[in-house]
Amino acid sequence: MNVVTQLVVILGTIGVVMVTVLLHVAYLTYFERKVLGWMQDRMGPMEVGYHGLLQPIADGLKLFMKEDIIPSGANKIIFSLAPILSLIPALIGFAVIPWGDGQLTIPLPWIGDVTFRPFVTDLNIGILYLLALSSVGAYGILLGGWASNSKYSLLGGLRSAAQVISYELALGMSLVGVLLLAGSLSLVKIAQAQAGGFWHWYAFALPFPQIVALALYGIAAVAETNRLPFDLPEAESELVAGFFTEYSGMRFAFFFLAEYANMILVSCIAAIVFLGGWHAPFPFLDFVPGIVWFLLKVYVFLFFFYWIRATLPRLRYDQLMTFGWKVMIPLVLANILVTSVAAYFWMN
To answer: Which distant-in-sequence residues (6+ apart) come within 8 Å of 7 by Cβ?
Structure first.
């Protein structure tokens, strides 16, 4: 494969991934409002387009055309860069997310046959790459809150920093059990090892099913994405809008996009690591394309985000921290210990 062909493959794959992610981010807001409306006996968006289907486009145009205000006492450079620092790590994390197996060969004029793989790249440290990016994204929230020169924003940023320290540890450690069983940090290899039916998925597989780790990961993922009941950095009833109180226009939209992109990213990780990625639950269903199974699992996790938002109230800050350190951390450590012992005796 020559340099031109390689460039076409890389840019084409990146383009498909980015367009797909951004379309999903836009319409996640629509489906969230619809689902919450149904759960609360309301209609949700109905005015713009058929049943409100064009509402995300209208919202995007509105934010694009709104005035971009920078407070007079703000640190203008950091204030401007903070939303980008939140959004970029959320988007580039999708570079290592595989959504299928095999490859697709397409003949292109003047170039020849070009082979596309169902992922941008396969890093042998894919899990570490994603955990590192999630840490960087938290700096955007912290710096945005500090640079706004607002007490509400500063409190939201500080809460976010403490929340990330508490729950990112549990998030990363909840994956260790699967890594012990898989023997790899590559998301592609972890997914490939779960072929053959749902009894091979790490959430249910012997020697020690990681169903508890999946539950802990789900809770930590909700906290990492600042969603109810863990949305203390925003906490409208206490901090107006928390770390982005002073933001408007497209800078506000970047924080919004980052939150929903992170929701999709943690859902993709859960589907790959615990639920077999693109593999069907039963071998006789393998005729269904792998990307269909992968998206179905991701959508189930996204619905979980909506469901708990409509069900649970926001925690107090002391409850948030107590639950993270006194419940989540001991449980993930116990899961690692039991998995290590079970894997050792199973393999010997």
So the answer is: none
Query: ∠ at Cα 343 (341, 348), nearest 5°?
Result: 100
Contacts 24+ apart (CB under 8 A), 342-347: 342/207, 342/208, 343/180, 343/181, 343/207, 343/208, 345/207, 346/206, 346/207
Instruction: Give the integer Cα–Cα distance in Å for 238 and 232.
Output: 9
Write out the chain's pLDDT in tens, 348 residues.
567 777 877 888 888 899 999 999 989 989 999 999 988 888 888 888 888 888 988 888 888 888 878 888 788 888 888 889 889 998 999 999 998 887 766 666 666 666 778 888 888 898 999 988 888 888 888 888 888 888 888 888 888 878 888 888 899 999 999 999 888 899 999 999 998 889 999 999 888 899 999 999 999 999 888 888 888 767 666 666 677 788 888 888 888 888 899 999 999 999 999 998 899 999 888 888 889 999 999 999 999 999 998 888 888 888 888 998 999 999 999 999 999 998 888 877
How open is the CA angle 273-135-32, to the nearest 5 degrees?
65
- 115 DSSP β-pair partners: 105
204 vs 181: CA distance, rounded Å: 12
Domain count, the chain: 1
